[in-house]
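Reopening closed ticket. The problem is back. First fold of the pair:
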Amino acid sequence: MQSFEIRSLSGLAFLYASRMLGLFMVLPVLALYAPGYSGSTALLAGVALGVYGITQGLLQIPFGLVSDRIGRKPVILVGMLIFLAGSLVAANAESIAGIIVGRALQGAGAVASTIMALLTDLTREEHRVRAMAMVGGTIGVCFAIAMVSGPWIAGKWGLSGIFWITAGLAVTGVLVVLFVVPSPAAPNRLASREALAVPSLLKATLHDRQLLRLDFGIFTMHMVQMACWVSVPVVLETTFQFGRDQHWWLYLATMGLGFIAIVPLILFAESRHKMKPVFVSGVVVLVVAEAVLGLTQTSFPLFAFGLFLFFVAFNLLEACLPSLVSKTAPGGSRGTAMGIYSSSQFLGAFVGGTAGGWLVYSYGLQSVYFFSALAALLWLAAAATMSAPRRWSSLVVKLKEGEQLVGEDYLAIAGVEDLVLIPDKQLAYFKVDKALFDRPGFERLLGRPVG
């Protein structure tokens, strides 16, 4: 990579990571500290935990589309300022309602897809996929840091301390946007289709049953995750008398072991093309984890083992799902598929926080895990019936002025699985099976070589 690209990648990775870290840090502590705020109930604590998801899910795609019209950096700057405002509201809140409003505002700074689109504008094609993977991969790292740092920060400065630190990260993010991240000459709309939703493709993408299974999966996973963290910290403190100042090392141990456990599974899935069996196994582990957490309320070692299984499942599925969406999305619609996928993820967080809070309020702490196990079982049924992903890659052809392609001729070539034509942009998106693709035959039909 050139220094320009390294600078772009570093700045945008920081923006992406600081937002996700700020949203995640309250996860292991909010249920513990919420009773100290006026008007707090278990239900409202759950809403406060997950409410960022509803604003994030609803605004993610619109922010990306606006960035295609007015530019990426202005939209990202507005999003970071909204995130800053939400952090300040929550930091100064004295009631649970104030926390809810602050968290909703934090989620309204929904610029994750716009950050990815700017990254595509600022990187060359040969480095783009790797750069996007590096930025997207910060989610797992941020989740791990948040689970350890959140309890430690809250123990020293309370819940408001987390929001003040988040506000500081937001201010730093604004400065990074202004002074570190370069400005592209113009939005690269060809590359942006890999990062942003395209309105004309939304309907077709929403009718893809394979993608819908994956959208349901990410919705369920984040619903389960958010529901569990309404209960887990409280169970540790009240049932097992495990001091809140010690929670961080339990999360560090179980999550660290979980990361180690999934490495050989991911390598096996990719190298042996066994993504579906590994993915389905991850859902099975999630079901087992929720059952163990629900049935071991009197044994701390078994409850800790349930947390370990949860982190194994969560980390494995977080790694598999984006790859499956990318491999399953029709040609030219990866950005659209990922936009719907991301919205499903955040909406799942909102439903999970709200449902978890209601269950704890109505039926007690244990009910959350049985609800989550049932949801994971439904996901298992959907995952087990999905098709195994093909070894597909995207091929983009820039059409000449007035050039028209006969789709049937190209789809008859070995390895060509799908074709999407964008006449107004003079683009053709092909999805090809790398193992079967007859490149010489394709180039003879096209009349020129392709990259």
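Second fold of the pair, where the issue appears:
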Amino acid sequence: MKITLLGAAGGEVTGSCYLVQTKTASVLVDCGLFQGGHRAEDLNRAPLPVNGLAAVLITHGHLDHTGRLPLLAKANYSGPIFATQATIEMSSLIVRDSAHIQTQDIERVNRKRERAGEPPAEPLYTPAHAETIIQHFKPVPYQQAVNVAPGIQAIWTEAGHMLGSASIQLIVDDEGKTKRIVFSGDLGPKNAPILKDYEPFQKADMVFLESTYGDRDHQPIGETIEEFTTIVKNAVSARGKILVPTFAVGRAQLLMLLLSQMFRSQRVRPFPVFLDSPMAIAATEIYERHHELFDNEMLQYIAEKPVVADLKSLTLCVTAEDSKKINDQPGPCLVMAGAGMCNAGRILHHLKANLWKPETHVVIVGYQSADSLGRRLVDGEKLVSIFGEKIAVKAQVHTLGGFSAHAGQTDLLAWFSAIALSKPRVVLTHGENMQRGVLGKLIEQRYQLQPQLPELNEVIEL
């Protein structure tokens, strides 16, 4: 059996994609987009192995695990794509949005190329490719073996990372011997609000373990919630605007829950809140359809009263006109808008209008990549450029580190400890080299197992 690392390897965090080849079948586990810079563009255009591909298995809906799926449609793949029902709904939302962005981006590029007398470029894929591939999704249950290809069964189990997320165990009949290969997918932190905790597998011959935060733990969630509450109280008393660059899936729903808790407990009097993201609004509707994936605390909370009942002051901003009206809203108010790294989207307009005001608070609640405006704000730059205009940063910028949807080092090791007794081969992926190096040394010390740190396109034989 051969497993080829077609993404999230060699220190690359994005582009998760594994090709599993047995004597009887080939399947892909995840088919994610590479993100960040020109190298990512080149990697995304590399051909995918469609010939002889029997099935695709998806761990969860995030773009770096699903964003290359429309390329399969472009290459005339016609087989099934297996995922949990919530992942199907989230993936459909996310790949449609990605295709829309690809089309917008290429139109802008081609206007420049036309002026320069150059031939037009093609988008990576189109909305038509996204719609075609969405038709191939097939829902699977948690904790039940599913026949996905000749000689290959798969089991999905809760990963606690996002709505519908899963780790996947392949059970492969390899010339009369049964081999078990586990893909962790992205794992969530234990005791995070809303979702259930991950459920680890107990047995494997080989484990592909994510290592995004393999070198450290996050600030405890309770401390982070207290910090967020204090920021909100201070901003409200000073009648300032609170701007929160927000990832549409996961982070927006968590923040709405926290605001609901503040208002319900009367720690903060209700004030205007704006969810300025059509994608976050659509993702929230998907959450409402899947209460079965919520943890007991969340179920008890919404049984007492729905979250939306506490958020009478919430305005959902679908159109660009809705978004522009926020400029006329005096403080105090809180604006959640994409993109989460301030590298595009409606948040840029709000930052341009408010960063130069000392009473403004900017709350960074997620990872900021090295080349993003969000990272420059976190690093304390006093002058930034937005839409070609220089903007003084006089706002107060707060960084909250405990809202990550990724497991920290302790939780990664706790997940792995359940499977370590079966003495599997360990392959660390989905992490920068320092992070997976630190995690690899800990696994070696604790479990006397020597993890592999593969390069991109490396082939591992089992």
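Update: turned out to be a display glitch only; the data is intact. The chain has a mean pLDDT of 95. The chain is about 35% helix and 20% strand. Please close again.
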